[in-house]
Amino acid sequence: MHSISIALEGLAGQLSAAFPDAPGLHHLDVSFALNDAFDPLAWLNAQVSYPQFYWQQRNGDEEYAALGAVKRFRSLSAARQFLQRFPAYPETRIVGINAFDPQRGDLFLPRLLWERCGGNATLRLLLWSETSLNDDAQRAREVVHTLRQITAISPLSQQVVSEMHRPDKSGWMDLVTRATDAIAQSEFDKVVLARATDLQFDGAVSPAALMAASRQVNFQCYHFLMRSNADNAFLGSSPERLWRRRGSLLRTEALAGTVASHHDDAHATRLGNWLMHDDKNQRENMLVVEDICQRLQHDCGVLDVLPPQIVRLRKVQHLRRCIWTALQQPDDEQCLMLLQPTAAVAGLPRQAAWDFIAQNEPFDREGYAGSAGYLSLAQSEFCVALRSARVQHTRVRLYAGAGIVSGSDPEQEWQEIENKAAGLRTLLLKD
């Protein structure tokens, strides 16, 4: 028997108790050591309740699987306001996605939340009602009765029918040229341009299968999947942290500057050494560092910028500088508005670059370059939603972007987005 089945039995026993016919918030928790090969992603995929949310921290220490919504929120601001109503429950977690525009989001208070920290797991069932916890307990019992046994995730097998880039290569060349012309005219210093690639398949694509395949090969990445219903999901494997907060302690980073990776260690090291000493990429990274520090300086204590390091991924390598500080007040809405979108996904100055993106990119970014994660009063963590895809039944939209600064070459930037998109594309197309 899987550990999740034993935990569910424990929750069902707790749920059989009587609850007050009054408003409130209540947790039912079962904690246990992991002694099997339980895969929370496969467990989610077997269920027919939505929304579903899966998230794994990039070092693998933390993992979450959330099923069903007690309450949904269209912004992180609304989610935070809800949590502030319950200071006695600082560990209540809300999970989900913030759109590229940080004032929009899709977050929810989960009915069931499986959480792993290290080798220990907790399964939480959450009750909340504005009128009667007893009534909500009955709704929770109905959800528990619909749960299905875990089944293996079938591998990807669909064949691609068509592929279309937005913009196509000639449109990209024109777009980058317009951006560098605007930079030369001092309209902004940097803009991050993106491309959407629409793949049409001969059958429905399983978001869980794509997520599982990516998780197997894309290491040092956050993995996230937000599934609104059976035919609509947003997922990705991102190397970049937006922020991590524990109490008032904050960690963020500047991940900007890119070169190809290679399966040969010596070749990859040579490429990484070039990236570490390349003027254009160093300049791009420092622009992001300076922007983050300027945004945080009035709301934080001392800002510690750590030395640069190379992050080697399967298809690309990045230049990263970590930034550590302490907030004057632990406020996740403030973190989101200060940090998103960063100069690494939008540009500098932020508003001018954002305006250029809105006027020139031929698609809506939606969740791409937004963020995915969780928040609570005690702590929060969100990754930047990069290397991501929108899955809608038989269609998959892949996203990739590149930072454009003075001297950027359109052909090289096209190759950069090809390399970035390959993190998921190679899992879908066997070429």
Instruction: Give the termini distance in whole angstroms.
Output: 40 Å
Low-confidence stretches: none
CATH superfamily of the largest domain: Anthranilate synthase
Can you tell me the number of structural domains? Answer: 2
Major pleated sheet: 20 strands, antiparallel
Q: Rough shape?
A: globular
The level-1 CATH class of the largest domain: Alpha Beta
> Which structural class fits the helix and strand makeup?
alpha+beta
DSSP strand content: 35-45%
Q: Compute the gyration radius: what is it? A: 22 Å
Number of strands: 20
CATH architecture of the largest domain: 4-Layer Sandwich
- What fold name goes in the CATH topology slot of the largest domain? Anthranilate synthase
Mean pLDDT: 95
Considering DSSP H and I runs of 4 or more, what fraction of the residues is helical?
25-40%
Number of helices: 11
Domain Chorismate-utilising enzyme C-terminal: 169-420
Active site: 190 (proton acceptor), 240 (proton donor)
Cofactor: Mg(2+)
InterPro entries: ADC_synthase (IPR005801), Chorismate_C (IPR015890), IsoChor_synthase (IPR004561), MenF (IPR034681), MenF-like (IPR044250)
Task: Write a short abstract of this structure.
The chain has helices spanning 3-15, 40-45, 76-84, 133-145, 169-184, 207-217, 265-277, 279-296, 332-339, 350-360, 410-428, and strands at residues 24-33, 52-56, 62-73, 94-98, 105-117, 120-129, 160-166, 190-201, 222-229, 232-238, 241-246, 249-260, 304-305, 309-312, 316-326, 347-348, 371-375, 379-384, 388-392, 395-404.
